[in-house]
Write a structure and sequence with these properties.
95 residues; mainly alpha
Length: 95
Amino acid sequence: MTASEAPPPIPPPARACARPGCAASVHKRTARYCSVRCSSLDPGRRARLRAGAQRGRVVPLARQLTLNFDGAEAPLAQFAGLREDLPSGLSRLAV
């Protein structure tokens, strides 16, 4: 073999599905499960998802941000007041 010829790449070994009890091989290199069904049936994954959902907390309305658009809508309301003679369906056509 000369220096310009590289040996053929060795394919990585087939990975097994991460779900306990499933011996099928994984189809993609970056996947953990052999199918969507195995992903949804995995008890470890379900426990992680359940813990993550319980960890999130609801923010009370009193602590949420207030969005005030009064300053941005005032010029639009003045501009719209000038075009009251147009029907609402034709207002976007008038320039």
